[in-house]
């Protein structure tokens, strides 16, 4: 690919409404563009990465004999009435009507559609076990879409469903899936942990979530430092024998914090800030052990001239630790982020505390501590500051560690929940009608792209693991438009790399070298080859890895082999 024929669209500034690094970098690297809350367009660069994830997922599904299908995103209500979920599913389900006033929905998941398919297509035990999967768009009307594609409303999921005559057969496929998921996250170069997860009404420990470890993660997981034990914190408690709460979670105190408590803390702020600041959003710090929270001060749109002094004034009653100044303009209503010490508990989830906000309403009345969306002033805060490595793991082996995770996958033994309701069965060997038992297995394909960036970035931008990079190599020619020799060498290298099937970007734009380097480092292409006059005198080019390390001179003739 030549940059001159490509759509690069990188941004210099960090968009002020993007709170976590992956969202910031996906916007800056020109991977996604927002259409509306939780809805994104994937640009050529973003889509290249998304496809890499998809392909790894597809290969590993096929390796365990799962068969790919594609189901419609729009689903008829009657199937959901059969399963009972038309009434049970909350407001995350987007319901729509067609021109004949018939009810439909945008699929948040596909158990009903797959059950309908299998009850029609599969009639004999000889056709079992059967695992089907798709990679497709889901829609969930999330209460708070945030962090870009991390929690979107429309997002890409791989969902697989398996059908069995016996629990043993289901367990085998479940184990295969568990291993396939582990291979997927290993191949993608992610630091991940499978954890025991909640099975809701079905019970047992027949569900695992796969978490990518990252400080921005919305979930907390507890794991042992010397065994394979890992569970999300709710399960670490739920699985303990009755009356024996694990020592670690005993210390994880839960408090109901009333809105008034928060209001009292924030009261001094509100008096100072009514003029300048429209709202204050309280967030827990990213660092799980730290005792500060962040305040995001948001100015009214018209108050675009509010400067850092005002911010300081507003936050003056608090013990300020650090403060970042942010540009203010009409597009960017946030005037700054302050890290401050507050006499408040640190929540286990930044996202949850963000629900707490206070601000001035239209009449200038200051509202505090109201969880706006849920419309309740009460809030459960889980304090994990007292949990220290010293504490025994809930499994009894080794010490407990607590980390934040991003849920990127979830596998689940459903049993006969759907097959009972929707009459999915076959004739068994003895000619009896048997209801099938089911498993379902999801991977957040688009969320993985963001999660990978959370783990692979530096101050210059994204550092893609090879398996995910939009391009493997970039050729950066120095002043090519003035040097026929540089141009000829770069063109030849480009053709040679392409001939080897290597994904290569040729930065043939009429830009200064500095601009090219900045863009390519931001996008995070793992390998860079610089073609310049001086090195060509010795028939050499310069190689640099995005992950750092020394620049190396490589002979032009060996370059393709060196990269391979
Ligand atoms: P979460 O707890 O984050 O809301 P979930 O448990 O509701 O996720 P599942 O029903 O288990 O999600 O769906 C399978 C996978 O789809 C999740 O593990 C996650 O990776 C991904 N996913 C779920 N919701 C979203 C979303 N709003 N945006 C992006 N990916 C999502
Ligand atoms: Mg969810
Ligand atoms: Mg979940
Ligand atoms: Mg889940």
Please name the defining characteristics of this protein.
564 residues, alpha+beta, 9-stranded mixed β-sheet, 17 helices, 31 strands, 28% helix, binds adenosine-5'-triphosphate, binds magnesium ion, EC 6.1.1.15, nucleotide-binding, Anticodon-bd, ATP binding, protein biosynthesis
Report on this model:
The protein is α+β, with helices and mostly antiparallel strands and 564 residues long. The chain has 17 helices and 31 strands. The strands form eight sheets. Strands 3, 7, 8, 9, 10, 11, 12, 21 and 24 form a nine-stranded mixed β-sheet that branches. The longest helix has 21 residues, at 167-187. The radius of gyration is 27 Å and the shape is elongated. It starts with 20 loop residues before the first helix and ends with a helix.
